[in-house]
Automatic annotation (TrEMBL):
InterPro entries xrefs: GH, GH13_cat_dom
Top-rank taxon, per record: Bacteria
Stated name of the protein: Cytoplasmic alpha-amylase
Glycosyl hydrolase family 13 catalytic domain: residues covered: 5-246
A Pfam family of this chain: Alpha-amylase
């Protein structure tokens, strides 16, 4: 007999920033099971731009509410320990857990860096509207609050394909990073909106860089083992090079 389950999205954009969401989910597990819920989709559970961030402005994927970073230890939803308790309670009640995962971009970098870039037309990413020039962008991530626990990988400008602001000139727009092997994903690998919809927001991750690809695989293995989730929902998938997740 085929199994026809029911998944519930257990979050919405305007949840209170009280750090008690994981506690509420833990306490609600038995009730959800009694109502016929067989799977729960939880929000991004890692540290983002700040405590009130819903989770899509992702900063540190390894920080699940464990380290004092971006002015807070907990995420909007609670601490790492409370997340574990919620997942355990759901599993005890026969409910699968699917996590929302944001791998398209990174936000709230720790430092700026200087690099070469070309500004492109926001409505046609194939059209350049500037010459190649040096800009300053928020692209260095070294996670001082975590101090290398779980991973000592540091992110630099060459791990990204684009940014949305030049701090040097204070100009805003879409700046495609220039360098060896750099460029947007091929047109048939991402959505063709605006000509090529590789770039969405913040510092756009370049999955053409081998170190990025390997670090992301390592994080996924760590995350699944650490949380014991049953699956993921991949955010912004139409902006990510298809070969990266096939």
């Amino acid at each position: 007999m085929n199994f026809n389950g029911t998944m519930m999205q257990y979050f919405e954009w305007d949840l209170p920033n009280d750090g008690k969401h994981w506690q509420r989910l833990r306490d609600d597990a038995k009730h959800l099971s009694e109502k016929g819920i067989t799977a729960v989709w939880i929000p991004p559970c890692f540290k983002a731009t700040g405590q009130a961030d819903v989770g899509y402005g992702v900063y540190d994927l390894y920080d699940l509410g464990e380290f004092d970073q971006k002015g807070t230890l907990r995420t909007k939803y609670g601490t790492k320990e409370e997340l574990h308790e919620a997942i355990a309670a759901l599993h005890e009640n026969g409910i699968q857990v699917y996590a929302d995962v944001v791998l398209n971009h990174k936000a709230a970098a720790d430092e700026t860096e200087f690099f070469q870039a070309i500004q492109v037309d926001e409505n046609d990413r194939h059209k350049t509207i500037s010459e190649e020039h040096e800009i300053e962008g928020w692209t260095r991530f070294y996670f001082p609050g975590r101090r290398g626990k779980y991973s000592d990988f540091e992110w630099h400008w060459y791990h990204f394909s684009g940014v949305s602001k030049d701090e040097k000139s204070e100009a805003e727009g879409i700046f495609q990073i220039v360098g060896e092997g750099k460029g947007w994903a091929e047109d048939d690998e991402v959505s063709n909106e605006f000509g090529n919809f590789d770039y969405l927001m913040f510092a756009d991750i370049d999955y053409g860089h081998e170190d990025v690809f390997e670090e992301t695989k390592q994080w996924l293995n760590w995350f699944i083992n650490e949380t014991e989730i049953d699956g993921i929902r991949l955010d912004a998938v139409k902006h990510i090079k298809t070969l990266s997740y096939q």
